[in-house]
Amino acid sequence: MPYTPKDATAATAAANRQAVAGYDMQDRQDFADADRGLIAPLPGPLRADDGRVIFDASRFDYIADDTEAPDTVHPSLWRQSQLIRRGGLYKVVDGLYQVRNNDIANLTVVEGESGLVVVDCMANVEAASQAMAMIREHVSDKPVAAVIYTHTHIDHYGGVKGVVSAEDVASGKVPIIAPGTIASFDKHAIGENVIAGNAMSRRASYAFNSLLDQGPGGCVTCGIGIASLPGVTISYLSPTDPITETGTKRDLGGLEFEFLYAPDTEAPEEMHIWIPQLAALTCAENANHSLHNIQTLRGARTRDARNFARYLDETLERWGDQAQVHYGPHTWPVWGNQEVTGFLESQRDTYKYIHDQALRLANKGYTPLEAAEEIELPQALGRKWFNRGYHGTLHHDVRAVFTKELGMWDGDPVSLHPHPPVETARRFVDLIGADQVLAEGKRAIAAGDYRWAAQILHTLVFAQPDHQDARELQADAYEQLGYQAEGPQWRGIYLTAAKELREGVQAATFATASPDTILAMPVDILFDYAAVHLIGDQAATADLRIDFHFTDTDQTWTMWIANGVLNARRGASERTQLTVTGPKAALVGALLQPATAPQLARSGAITLDGDPTALHTLAGLLDDFDPDFPIVTP
Length: 634
Known about the structure:
There is one protein chain. By secondary structure, the protein is α+β, with helices and mostly antiparallel strands. An eight-stranded mixed beta sheet has the order 1-4-5-6-7-8-9-10. A six-stranded mixed beta sheet has the order 11-12-13-14-15-16. It has a five-stranded mixed beta sheet with strand order 19-18-17-20-21, with helices on one face.
């Protein structure tokens, strides 16, 4: 039976109507800008190789420009979604083009005399391939001269094999330019998305609405892009040309590109790009038509809000008086020097305000949550549409500044060593009584106090996960919180929580740890990935040493397990129990799924020299990760 969300309550409808007063709904400049330069609309549904529909823009037709926000959607998010649903191929300026909104990220192409330079490759091969086909049909059939990754996030490199072949990159025909050293870029791009990939993917399925149906009671858009697409092909090719210094220049396709290195901002490795012949600037994801995350809800390293401001100011200092257009890897461009500088100055000041005010309150003794409840942006910043919380939110960004600067403890002794959630919940329910908790939840919902309802009912759901009345009531509270959320990630988290409380855990539709990404991992990160699968207590008494010889790179690494830890280093060991030899693609299977090693050996993919039971021992020490682990229940 299809899942049917409930209607907005009278309290939610009133809250969303009241929210309109805080915005300049008559400002329609963004609509003109989002439509500007349209060459061709998207050419129909995006399909996988097997014909399956991955994405169909027509499913968002209900978000029409002349349709008022329904009671189930915050009016600010509705407006942003009306803008985001515009998709197609656009001319930004002569020589610079974007395909937007067949994916969560844009693909930008700069046409030079001798070739095309692709700036960011979308999140998946299917969307990037469709985008490049549109470029070929409507703009130019010149060869790809270079690929640029602006930063280390999956929605900017995942489609690279839809843009360029691995052979052209390996031969040196097409360079891939990226910020940071190659080793650092690989470490952060792959490490962030793979080492903690199972947890990140599960959390991302909540934050990016991927377990929700599209519609006014579910996924509207992702705010910074149309949607996170299910069932796609994620690829990876390592950079070949690193940018580690501001002022570095490259001649690409016959045009000059100058780079500003901006590490530890929106990503651990990131850079801004200036093309003087086009007077075109991008600050990657350090400047967007949305407030960004200082701490992502999907999970990633906490960012430095001060660095956002610092590098935006340096960009203004270097190119602010020349820039005529700012284009980004998400949303639509900004045209005109005054508009570009005003946009960057306002975003700079927003991040610095968040940073400075969070630490001002920290120094006055506020906890992260107390500060987040207190801080509001000044009207000069907060009423700018591009500073609204369509990706990050002011509330969780303030808390993130505390995390970045002060760490995980909020300064209150009671939070230093609390009981875990289930034990805490049981004690509260034993003290108060299940019936009393349920009654208080009902009272809070009737009063429109959905935050308190979700919080008090959480104790009963975690103490008694099969208490269906408590689950249904908490789902009702989460649902209304989702309908009232301006931020699409908050909306997605609340609405997915409601759905899973009612229907149980939903099957994953997306994984950041794709086979292609795993195969692309540098060898040291490959062993790190294996190490986080090790069951420490079971491995505490193990004494295991295996050598892996990679024939395609002529490298040997020794891996050993002792003291419940898996370590690895270059070179062979004199005390190895087994040497496994083969190409990297086969050794990945032997390392991560050692139970398959005998079959790989029989097929000739690998050879085993020594005691083959060592791999059987290894298999017994590695954990499996369930991509559908519970979140809203224990």
